Amino acid sequence: MILNNLKTITKVDKGLLLRHISGFAEQCQSAVDIAKACPNFSKPKKVQNIVILGMGASAIVGDLLKTLFINESPVPIIVNRNYDLPQFVNEKSLVFAVSYSGDTEETLTAFKEVLKRKSKVVAITSGGRLAFLANRQKVPIVKIPSGIPPRAAMGYLFFPMIVFLQKWNIIENQTLNILDTINAIQKLEEKYNSKKSTPGNRAKELAAKLHKKIPLIIGIENSTDVVALRWKCQLNENSKNLAFTQFYPELGHNEIEGWKGIGKFSKNLIALFLRRSDESEDSIHRIDVLKTFLKNHVSEIIDVKEQGSSGLTQIFSLCHLGDYVSFYLSVLNKVDPTPVS
Amino acid sequence: MILNNLKTITKVDKGLLLRHISGFAEQCQSAVDIAKACPNFSKPKKVQNIVILGMGASAIVGDLLKTLFINESPVPIIVNRNYDLPQFVNEKSLVFAVSYSGDTEETLTAFKEVLKRKSKVVAITSGGRLAFLANRQKVPIVKIPSGIPPRAAMGYLFFPMIVFLQKWNIIENQTLNILDTINAIQKLEEKYNSKKSTPGNRAKELAAKLHKKIPLIIGIENSTDVVALRWKCQLNENSKNLAFTQFYPELGHNEIEGWKGIGKFSKNLIALFLRRSDESEDSIHRIDVLKTFLKNHVSEIIDVKEQGSSGLTQIFSLCHLGDYVSFYLSVLNKVDPTPVS
Questions:
Q1: Domain B44-168 in CATH 3.40.50.10490
Q2: Of residues B241, B243, B255, nearest to A233 (C-beta)
Q3: Looking at the DSSP assignment, which residues form a beta bridge with residue A142?
Q4: pLDDT for B13-52, tens place per residue?
Q5: A341 touches chain B (CB under 8 A)
Q6: Buried (b) or exposed (e) across A40-55, using 16+ Cβ within 10 A?
Q7: Which CATH superfamily includes the segment(s) A17-173?
Q8: How confident is the model over A248-291, as pLDDT tens digits?
Q9: Nearest residue, CB atoms, A86 vs list B71, B261, B340
Q10: CB A140 within 8 A of CB A38
Q11: Which fold has domain B190-332?
């Protein structure tokens, strides 16, 4: 099997993406350390909403934050993927302006507007115009290392937000969850790394299944939905592979009807359910019913589940698997995963 | 052409869906009248967020509200498609519990939780457990007519929210926009109705183009994104046709890479851009660049645009066209559009 040939992997991976994926646990730890070492920015007062400005991988970290804390955050968390800014963003908003390069147009435009509205802002970036403007306006910056493809910098982009939110007592202390997450990713590294052969390497096995198919990544609303989006984007950008997302329980309400007319397309599609180990009995039963229906309409249905004692661990473990799958699929598709136009 | 044969249309449309689509302008007017005739519920005080509970078509009206008023609403608008409720929903939340049947499990579960948290609630329903519980708890109900497939009741589900929000001065008076919208839909009725033949009937022409394809409905973030979702659901439920959504500008940031690996699938896909007549020059230029790239990867690219003097008019006109297209596609797919399992 091609994925067990390390020379082939090295040959395809001209931009050296693999080293960022395999160093993900270290990246997460480093992100926490960088954020903790930032000066003690004053705590924002009377926060009424948390807004994350970002696009692509930088928006997904906002989605991750929202998903993980929707049930405990005292205020709404909103991800803004646009040039414009909702009217309710004002001096009582806490804003994270996230752009890896610092030059994302949409984020810069919205960032300038946020400054006018006197929101409390933290910029998370490796440099660019965002760092320049933030410096000039004395906006706190979390400066992360440059030279990485933005989508391989998810740890750097995500963890600083957690550090600030817990420092300001907006969310509970996450120290133990962060530790558990980093440990879990380190363990997964032993399972998914390129030297570990198929069969037995789940990431390589999944990539082989998705090869020459259109995967439909099915996430659970407010749980693994954002992971589904991350998988889709990684399959798009790293593997240059088309992929779509669907969300449960909404999927059961209407989208499912579309599958009935799938006809000749069905052999091209593969459904992949992103599961959590802490789902309710009720939810498990409903998903089983959905799968029974779907199995006549797609070439295969696959469950992907990760263990972990916290939501943070489970979500990040699933993301890490997706990163590896997308990398191995790029090898099978014979495209260097790093460059994007 | 089969779509010009009225007998064939009647034969497929056993559940008489067409009469609901063709009566959409009247439905919108009737919804406004019903909501205005409701008793004067006391104005909620210090609203900090607006939450819409709903699934399927009932959630989409929440998305529509959010999209149309995101730039003027003084507070965040959140659509909750789940059993659970975010922590920030409390006595300062204004909640619309929307369920056409009144028996949607997710909405009922979240509704009971909302009552515990003492939010200000309005129920929009034709009956069921939601009406029963709301009556027992003295929650205001907007009672809409029963006996319609929920997805054909979008006017009934949407307009009451507008009426209440303007009554309570949370949004500006929408009387003129509503009038303009209803007039526009009436005019479109003359263009899209079943007696109006192809060529010349845009709805029939589009249905013919989408036949035996997987349409990728591309919406613009915070603008036509929700229309894209509505089109997708209508194509799924009415036409039993698979469809996917993509969103611009996010599409340009990463998803586009996936198209490069599309290979043999490309002949099955058709990209449909939902446009507004009030887009900026800048946005038009960027979409053109995106289309130039996409045209090598799909069988066809189609622009769909509706005129109208307000966002409300443009969005509802586009939705109405989608309803007609999905209906005609059901005829081409030879499936009764009404029943869903």
A1: yes
A2: B255
A3: A124
A4: 999 999 999 999 999 999 999 999 998 778 788 899 999 9
A5: yes
A6: ebeebeebbbbbbbbb
A7: Glucose-6-phosphate isomerase like protein; domain 1 (3.40.50.10490)
A8: 888 877 778 888 887 778 888 999 999 998 889 988 999 999 99
A9: B71
A10: yes
A11: Rossmann fold (3.40.50)
